[in-house]
Design goal:
Length: 197
């Protein structure tokens, strides 16, 4: 009976999820993307239908040869769009989405995880100093790490102190006053009272 309990305890230790393993190894999970599961499902579906479409292309083109040329080009182009371009477009949108972020408290290094084209996990290691926040964020871009744009939802941080640190809210603001067309001579005119009508 003791050996059965010991084996079940050992098997429970083997079946740990990745965030639990990282917590035990000294890193803290500070961000988990809620859309990561859906991004993975959509990309798997898109890649699998593209593979099926590529496998069926000889049969499709054989049937298209019986149609008029213009109609064959239209149907072939429509089918090829979904076979080839849909996975590429989905990847362009979802490659910036951060699925998980961890922090190593000993070194202060962050690790952000994204998906590649073929659903492999890509790890981005950085410190808070490596992060730049764009003045005008682009499409699906919250921060840039070593020049790579990443999309992070601020509400999904487990501790908002990390959000504040990454988005540089702790550093002082830099105000830039634009003075268009003002020369030292025109600057003196600003102090004069305006004329009354």
């Amino acid at each position: 009976m003791y050996t059965i309990k010991q084996q079940s305890a050992a098997s429970d230790n083997d079946v740990k999820t990745e965030p639990e393993r990282e917590r035990n190894s000294g890193t803290n999970v500070i961000y988990v993307g809620t859309l990561a599961r859906y991004v993975r499902i959509v990309k798997v579906f898109s890649l699998s239908t593209s593979v099926a479409g590529i496998c069926l292309q000889p049969f499709i083109y054989k049937k298209l040869s019986a149609l008029p040329v213009i109609l064959a080009f239209a149907v072939g182009g429509f089918a090829s769009f979904f076979i080839y371009l849909t996975p590429v477009l989905l990847h362009l949108i979802s490659k910036r989405y951060v699925t998980e972020m961890t922090l190593d408290p000993a070194t202060g290094d962050y690790t952000a995880t994204t998906y590649t084209f073929f659903l492999r996990k890509k790890v981005h290691r950085f410190t808070a100093d490596d992060v730049t926040v764009p003045n005008v964020p682009g499409l699906f871009t919250s921060i840039r790490v070593h020049g790579v744009p990443l999309f992070i939802d601020r509400d999904l941080f487990t501790d908002h102190r990390h959000f504040v640190q990454l988005f540089k809210y702790t550093s002082p603001l830099e105000w830039e006053i634009v003075s268009e067309g003002l020369t030292p001579d025109n600057d003196k005119d600003l102090d004069k009272p305006t004329k009354k009508l």
